[in-house]
Amino acid sequence: QVQLVESGGGLVQAGGSLRLSCLASGQTISTLTMAWFRQAPGKEREFVAARWNIVSTYYGDSVKGRFTISRDNAKNTVYLQMNSLKPNDTAAYYCAARKNYGMAYVRSEYDYWGQGTQVTVSS
Predict the structure, then answer these.
(1) What is the rounded average pLDDT for all residues in the chain?
(2) Can you tell me the distance from the alpha carbon of 29 to that of 2, in angstroms, rounded to the nearest whole number?
(3) Which of 120, 41, 32, 112 is nearest to 82 (CA)?
């Protein structure tokens, strides 16, 4: 069983930056596909970014060029660096892990989820 705990959310002005962290336990993240999703009120949960090895990453169209997913295997932690934030980035951000190695951007393909961390971007 994998447990995921997110942190780093908060309130930031448009144009600012935040870094989210996802601490994993129960399994090393180097053997998992790790991802970030987000969900705004009244909307579906949306894929943000995924990473499954040292070089393979994939981003949702709305965050390409602004967000970066990375990981620190020694800390068993995944990060989401968010730059040039916009008000429509406001959402609860969720860390997810997938046992099957490889890219996936559909919510149902992920096996484990964190509790979420709120990001609010003011205009």
Answers:
(1) 95
(2) 9
(3) 120
